[in-house]
Amino acid sequence: MYLILKRILDILIACLGIIVLSPLFIIIILLLLLTGEHEVFYRQKRIGIENTTFGIIKFATMVKNSLQIGTGAITLRNDPRVTHVGKILRMSKLNELPQVINVLLGDMSVVGPRPLVQVTFDAYPDYVKKEIYKSKPGITGIGSIIFRDEELLISNSPLEPAVYYKNTIAPYKGDVELWYHRNRSILADLKIIFVTAWVIIFPKSDLLYRWFKDLPKRPF
Asked: Which of 30, 93, 139, 193 is the most exposed place for a label (fewest CB within 10 A)?
């Protein structure tokens, strides 16, 4: 029953999102075209339900072939591969908006674990990789909220970005995503959607931990 209700909620939110946000979509598309960016949208292979792959849709924020340049799949704060408009889109998370199309297609849910590229998925411990995508990946989720400052964390670390991600971020991120899988419900999803919007306005809020008291707290 939960999965049926979740799918209905996903379709309703995605349809409403497309209708309400269509003027914003048009403005962003025009900005990307007028600033001479190479692409407006891009599709990238991500890990999805039951560890299958799908093409995630986002507004383009980086130069072409960015995965073959610099730090690859890991993006740093003030990453030179990010375009001028792309920086604004990433900071505001507006680059994520086209994923409502993935939700309508059934590749994603509104709430779930973040869909990762293969190299960052491989940084998870094996016990996480076996379980995490038994839930559909989401536009937002526990991991997305807790690690909204991920680029800054990696940028400030004295360690090599890939090493810091694998040894510090991935184990904890995996644990909180598994927490979501074990505690998922329609009420939890609605709370996560609310907190996603709340922390944009109040980025230092601890509302997530106050609502989900047994959620493992970030140790760094």
From this structure: 30
Determine the Cα–Cα distance for residues 193 and 186; give it in Å rounded to an integer.
11
The pTM is what?
Answer: 0.86
* Spatial separation of the C-alpha atoms in residues 90 and 87, rounded to whole Å: 5
Pick from 69, 75, 72: nearest CA to 87? 75
Q: Say if 20 falls within a structural domain.
A: yes
Tens digit of each residue's pLDDT, the chain (220 residues): 899 999 999 999 999 999 999 999 999 999 888 886 667 888 899 999 999 999 999 998 876 666 656 666 666 666 778 877 878 888 787 888 999 999 999 999 999 999 999 999 999 999 999 999 999 999 999 999 999 888 888 888 898 988 999 999 999 999 999 999 999 999 999 999 999 999 988 989 999 999 999 999 998 8
* C-alpha–C-alpha distance, residues 33 and 87, integer Å: 15
For residue 143, give its domain range: 2-211
Closest CA to 96 of 8, 14, 195: 14
In a domain, 216, yes or no: no
* 76 assigned to some structural domain: yes
